[in-house]
Structures are given as C-alpha cells and as structure tokens.
Design a protein that fits this description.
- With 167 residues, the chain is of the alpha+beta class.
- The chain has one domain.
- The chain is built from two helices and seven strands.
- The strands form two sheets. Strands 2-3-5-6-7 form a five-stranded antiparallel β-sheet, with helices on one face.
- The radius of gyration is 24 Å and the shape is rod-shaped.
- It starts with 9 loop residues before the first helix and ends in an 11-residue tail after the last strand.
- It comes from Candidatus Woesebacteria bacterium RIFCSPHIGHO2_01_FULL_40_22.
- It is a single-pass membrane protein.
- InterPro entries: N_methyl_site, Pilin-like.
- Its main location: membrane.
C-alpha cells in the first residue's frame, strides 16, 4: 500500500517564512521613504500658505512684509510670523508636536518652519525682503526648502541667516 504525505516539510515552511520576511523588510523600507516624501510635500505646501499670507499682508501695507531680522518660528506663539500675520490657523510641520512624544529626525534634530526678513525687526510691516524655509526629511544630506520674497523657491544646503535669497 502507498503512503501519501499531505503536509509541508519543515524546510518548505522555513523557505516560505524567509521569503515573507524578506518581502516585509523591503516593503517597510519603501514605506518609510514614502512617508518622508509625503511629509516633505506637506512642508512645501505649508510654506506656500505662509507665502500667500505674506503677499496678502504686503498688498495691504504698500508692499512691506512683516519684519523679523532674527529667525523666528513661523507657527509658534506670540512674536512669531503666525501672530504677526494674524492667522487663525497656522500650518505646523507634520512631525512637530507640543509634548515629548515627538520623534526627531535620524540625526536627532527637529524640523520647524522658519522666517527671517529685513526691516526694523519689530514685527511690523517694514521689510522689503524675506526668506521662509524648512528642513527636508527625505534626502541623504541636510537640505532645506526655501521660499523667497522674489518668488523663487527651491532647495539649498544651508539654512538662511538673513533675508537674502540663496536661490
């Protein structure tokens, strides 16, 4: 009489598990890059919203922008760009939060939206030039997305230190 084995051998099971593990690892890496790219796209969109608010404010103030001669956090509390522009809803970086449960970037740095301009530095509309920027996450070297008052936008490798456009 002929005997039939209807089950899988241990070797076959281990091969299948190894293949599943490899697929899971590869897809996990791809998902991480997708999430980083999505957050970078959100950052660019958020900075464009600030740019629109700045242009609207300048149109109401004879072409002058809010003046902050030292870099300020765009969406923070009083004394920031969001407060200067009297925005009711301020775009905030997708990874930013108010408590200690946030996750820093791979190099233990945080991302924020930052603004600097020329003028008197009082927060009043006396500036003629500005730069908005945020660090990007899905790049191999430190890179910032910069938007300038002259309408240019793009990537730079160092954070701005004044209102001069680096593009």
């Amino acid at each position: 009489m002929l005997s039939r084995n209807l089950g899988f051998t241990l070797v076959e099971m281990l091969v299948v598990l190894a293949i599943i593990a490899i697929i899971a690892a590869v897809s996990g890496i791809g998902m991480r890059n997708s999430f980083e790219s999505a957050r970078d796209a959100q950052r660019k969109s958020d900075l464009r919203q600030y740019q629109t608010a700045l242009e609207r404010q300048a149109n109401n103030n004879n072409g002058f922008y809010e003046s902050r001669t030292t870099a300020v956090d765009a969406p923070g509390a009083a004394g920031t760009l969001c407060a200067d522009l009297v925005l009711t809803s301020c775009p905030v970086d997708p990874r930013r939060c108010a408590d200690t449960t946030c996750t820093a970037l791979k190099d233990n740095t945080w991302i924020q939206y930052t603004y600097i301009s020329d003028g008197t530095g009082s927060g009043n509309p006396t500036g003629r030039n500005y730069v908005l920027w945020a660090r990007l996450e899905n790049v191999t070297t430190t890179t910032y997305w910069e938007i300038c008052s002259n309408g240019k936008s793009g990537t730079v490798t160092t954070a701005p230190t004044n209102s001069t456009c680096d593009l």
